[in-house]
Amino acid sequence: MNQIFIGLFLLSILNLVFIEAGKCGCQKSKLKRAISLKIDDMLLDHVDLMKIEGFRGYDKNARRWTDNTLKYTFHPQFPADKKQIVRESMNELTNDLKGCVKYVESTSGYHIKVQSHQPGCWSFVGMLNKQGGSQELNLENPGCLYSKGTIKHEFIHATGFMHTQMRADRDKFVNIFWERIDSDFCHAFVTCKNCEETVTYKTNSVMHYPSESFPCPGQRITMVDKQNKEIPYNHGTIEEDHQMIKHLYQCK
Ligand SMILES: [Zn+2]
């Protein structure tokens, strides 16, 4: 019964994917129709869609990592000279979280396989499968391996979090210029009913989009804060990012 429900749910979402190629602007009222199984750099499944849609029965702990530990290994093709920046990023995050969540390079048990041979920077959201094996996290070389902020951003997706500007309360903190967004990317601006609102909203969160996200031709910025200031690309985590993770993983 449950599988039938999930199947129908996925089918309905896939049928409603809403793309207007090459156009400017998103209709806010049609935004829910734009939800798909890939929102920018996040690969999603039915559990994530339940989170976004606010379905009853969604378990916020479903995708937490066992023992608060994210194990990762490098794919054999991962560039050797870029392993260090990933290791440093993971050590910094572990230290910043005071060990609440640990990012450990290890081949034992279920883990993240860090690869760079596919296009773009992307991750799944949280721990997918507690039975064994691995899940991919892609950091294209060199674009995704310049900034520790990008590496940490993808690993925080893998830890179980979506984008800050997807929070249901985001309109209190940012102004979105709907008419300037590339219509192919309207889905990147959906809100999520069950995303974390446990910490103060900060536009300098490493999980927040910058102002220059997905403009259509002839435009440059799609979002500003409430003081009309542009939001830069964020190169590192802030205390609110750490608090958000600690809250889900039940640390002080
Ligand atoms: Zn992201």
Could you please say which CATH topology of the domain at 66-162 applies here? Answer: Collagenase (Catalytic Domain)
Biggest sheet features? 7 strands, mixed
State the end-to-end CA separation. 39 Å
Major beta sheet, strand line-up: 1-2-6-7-5-3-4
The top-level CATH class of the domain at 66-162 is: Alpha Beta
Low-pLDDT sequence parts: 1-21
Estimate the strand proportion. Answer: 5-15%
Please count the helical segments: 5
Please identify the oligomeric state: single chain
CATH architecture of the domain at 66-162: 3-Layer(aba) Sandwich
Form type? globular
Number of DSSP strand runs? 9
Bound molecules: zinc ion
CATH superfamily of the domain at 66-162: Collagenase (Catalytic Domain)
* Average residue pLDDT: 89
What would you call the structural class? alpha/beta
- Rg estimate, integer Å: 18 Å
Portion in helices = 10-25%
Order of helices and strands: HEEHEHEEEEHEEH
Describe the structure.
- InterPro entries: MetalloPept_cat_dom_sf, Peptidase_M12A, Peptidase_Metallo.
- This is Metalloendopeptidase.
- The active site is at residue 154.
- The chain contains five helices and nine strands.
- It is 23% helix and 14% strand.
- Mean pLDDT is 89; it is low at 1-21.
- The chain has helices at residues 2-15, 46-53, 83-96, 148-159, 239-248; strands at residues 38-39, 42-43, 69-74, 102-105, 111-115, 121-124, 134-139, 174-176, 223-225.
- The protein has a domain at 66-162: Collagenase (Catalytic Domain).
- The strands form two sheets. Strands 1-2-6-7-5-3-4 form a seven-stranded mixed sheet. A two-stranded antiparallel sheet has the order 8-9.
- With 252 residues, it is of the alpha/beta class.
- It starts with a helix and ends with a helix.
- The longest helix is centred in the first third of the chain and has 14 residues, at 2-15.
- Helix 3 (83-96) links the parallel strand 3 (69-74) and strand 4 (102-105).
- Zinc ion is lined by residues 40-42, 153, 157, 163.
